[in-house]
Structure prediction request, 651 residues.
Amino acid sequence: WGEIEEKRYRVNLGLVMRGVMERVRFADPKVAKDELDREVERRLGPKTEEDLKPVDKKAAKKKNKDANKDAKKDAAAAAAAAAPSADAKDDAAAVEAEPEDPFEGIPSTLVARRLDSMVNSKALEEKQKEMSGGRIVTRFPPEPNGYLHVGHAKAMFMDFGYARKTNGYCVLRFDDTNPEKEKQEYIDTIIDVVHWLGHKPEKITYSSDYFEELYELAVELIKRGKAYICEQKGDEISKGREHKQDSPWRNRSVEENLKLFADMRKGLFDEGAVTLRMKIDMQSDNPCMRDPIAYRIKYSEHPRSGDKWCIYPSYDYTHCLVDSLEWVTHSLCTLEFEIRRDSYYWLIAALDLYRPYVWEFARLTLERTIVSKRKLLQLVEEKHVRGWDDPRMPTLVGMRRRGYTPMAINRFCAEIGVSRADNVIGMHKLEHAVRSDLDATAPRAFCVLNPLKVTITNFDESNVHEFEVQKHPKDVSLGSHNILLTPTVYIDQTDFRLEDEKGYYGLAPGKTAMLRHAYPISVTDVICNDAGDPIELKVTYDPAKSSKPKGVLHWVSGAPHSATAEIRIYKPLFKSEDPSALSKEAWLNDLDPESETVVVGARVGGFAAKAKPGDTFQFERVGYFCCDLDTNEERLVFNQVVSLRDTYAKK
Prediction:
């Protein structure tokens, strides 16, 4: 209040409001803002003539500049006074710094469209605090009908991150209300990738856990005259909602609706013959309020409940009620669900249940990528890709197989920020996050994509030419490895030219270049095939290092100290920036046939030749690579994770 009383009505109340909401996170932001405005006016009184005067921007700028100078002087003095001794500095250097928390950037204050129906009674607020221990509660509610993709990574970042930032907890809840599309395979994989990304659910629940309660709530809704059994077919319901026309069965009696709903549960109707619809407002401008379906008949076995049920609740009915039953305080979702907030709160209010706070954020749309589960499934079933975990796929299992790390994905989500404006995120931002993480953690190794045999004609086999090399130039904790110079080595074909030219530092006839970490070599003879292409170089080496050539080449030893490998080089799966915007007929034609290039016959040297699936390296001068799941005792396969430098134009 000291700053407010000093600056009066010129103080930035937005910053003050942010602090208020961090302390009273359960409060309605509009109510809190009105209360803050009243308290400011009570303390300061009405605005005076001085308050209404226009601000002298030059004077204010000078005042701020002087204040900043004083602050810097004070900070420098404080730093000098608090400077540690030499011993203390050594001790501090020995302590590893805590990594920056990527979840810190998640906003503390979440403001969304206000509805009267979203306000909880005092009794409901107190009950929620009792049930949650007064903590923030969020949930991540995936449908187990496919594999999670990069868009879900952002949703998890928000759901788990907001709970973590506020000292709350997050529930992993499966929205399993569509039995014919759900599989245990999807459930198991979702749990796996949630933990892989570093998220720790407080508990794992299923909407099916609440099927009995949801049924009883539907009965109660009917008793309150707010739901009815409709005999219209699906297309008739859609047409009626489009033209704001009531169902002929909208005004059935409560007694008849209760009987018919019980008959639905008993399996006395054919699938699609009847539905239970919420009785909201068929004249609403919001189509989600025009009597949405609450229950439908499905004679499909459920992955968890088996054949116990033949009626299943819809998403519009289930989602909000289970949020309430689990005492969720903050229901975070993407902006396409904003239109549903009216029906969300209508249903909870109609049953006098606790109302979570709903906040919508922009979904993640990544350049040259699609995230539609239906389209991803089509890519898999029609074998346009290897499977759900193809490294080109935006699925999290695909990104993991490619070599993306959990830290990089979470950092990417942090760097793109959280907003309510839809936009397409450039691929270079994702690759930057991956590259930054791997640059700090990936051990260095040598790989030659297109090997050219090099025979050292003056090789001295009486001496062992072995060199100890750090696995990472900036992290000695990763250790070192030895590389062995052998009579035959391999360099990349791009590092030799039959004709030398100015500015070229590779090898050419009669020219010298340095084998990295080893000795200079000079070309004495070139052996070519019938087409005139070089297939072997004869060279001499200079163990005394009497020359210091500018060119430095990466290389690998001959067998058995190197191994043949298959290298898969990747580009985005689609050619256009936003393939999701293409028509149903056009999107498959947008697939890039060059999205994967397979290099057979590459050679990998040193410890990388013994890589196991999941091991990641920086192949010097080539890029970052991850050992693929297809690797076995007879075959070594690497996926390109990301190039050494940004290959996309900055957007």
Observations:
- Confidence is low (pLDDT under 50) at residues 75-99.
- The longest strand covers residues 596-605.
- The radius of gyration is 32 Å.
